[in-house]
Amino acid sequence: MTSTGTYLTTKRRFAFAPTRPFAARRWGLWLALPVLATLVWAVQGGVQDPKLDTTDTQLLLKGQYLFQFAKGNDWPETSKSGPFVLAVHGKPELVEELAAKYASHPIGSQPLRVVAVEDLSAVGEPHVLYSEASGSDLAVLLGAVKDAPTLVVTFGQEALVAGATVNLFGSDRQLRYEINARDAEKRGILIGNRIASWAVQR
Amino acid sequence: MVLACVLAFGMEVKGQGSAGTEDVQVAVERAIALGKSGQYSDGLSVLAPYLSTPTPTAAKACYVAGFLHKERYKQNDSSSDRTEAVAWLGTSLDLDDRAGGRAPWRESARQAMSYLGGTYFDDAVLAVRAFEPGDETSILELFDAHVAVAQRLNPGLEATQERTEFHKNIARAYHQWFSTTGDNAHFEGVVTHYERALALSPQDITATYNLAVSIYNRGVALLKSFGVETSFGEMIAMQEQSAAFFDQALPWFERANELQPNRPETLRGLMIVHHALQDNAASEAFRVQLENALKP
To answer: Distance from B290 to chain A by nearest Cα, in Å?
Structure first.
């Protein structure tokens, strides 16, 4: 650092030194240097400013909610063999998040399998189906899992859509959810007490 | 040459003085000789009788005492010698001021003080570089000492910007600690020192933006800690805590945007914090602003 170097040099100056030439000019410099030094300090000292974490926070929350829905509800006996399938429609980054963080953890005795759904007509009967679609796309999707033991989770709908079991939506600056208990019952899915108790009524 | 220079100052004072002044001057010359041979403590002992109640006739004795303390500080790195050196040099200048400010050693005393002020500054900088939590009090004491010397020499000197930079650098140091430890006390250190920087310099865009980012990142870190072991209740609580951090960060991002409108980093922050607060419409509005700001 410019100023520190100057001071360190002066530290080694011999005592009772005669007055240096150009003292007044250097005196002015002395007053200015610490300011300059502090301004470039961060760069030269290696200290870093914090970097904005651009991780998609909604994605983190959606992933955790879907995992909690998988863990916290109960599916009919006919759905309790083979892998536990969590299907995500049209959101590959959420598939990545779920696969990376949760896929190694079984749901009950079933290994969790996270799958991406692109073809609306080939959804199958996953245990959980998540989609942010709306309008006709959503209607096709809901038609594909009609009456199946599938917990259908939508996002950002104005109100619960018929055929959807859970709707995630932003409220009071947080991600909340509402539950269509009748839809869950029709599909043979028993909503866990904890999940039911935190659901929002609109 | 050096000794001759100092002795020349002595001769000048001697020629002007009374009998009492001559006693002081003899002591001063003796102290200089002792100082020249490295016997700083002995030199100070010789001067001691004239320093108990300094008068203008003892101004040069004070100056030499300051110099001897300064040399002993350089030899032993003793902070008490540095303090004494500053005090005696300051006293010598005060006494000379009263006598009209014409002492031939005056500029030399000012340079000695400037050197000592510089050492305070250096020590404060080095202490920040080797920062450990809790060091801030001693760092700011060193900085205060530096400022006191600088303002003694230049009463109009404004140190606000320097002090702001110190707080920002202490905040950065705390940020590095927090990144490693995750200790909440270290996070509080980040916030406290950015807030202190902003109390001094409310227009400081860097401190404003860094404070916003630090608080926002804390909320993100909570959400990133979600895992398979997270219970439903924990998830709800962590979401509430993170939303509180996002809420706390938002006004600082907004303030940064007021200070420097359309700065891309700030617009990106606003876009992201609104997204985190589930306000997708506001997030989209800032995404559009960011896109426009990035257009060539």
So the answer is: 14
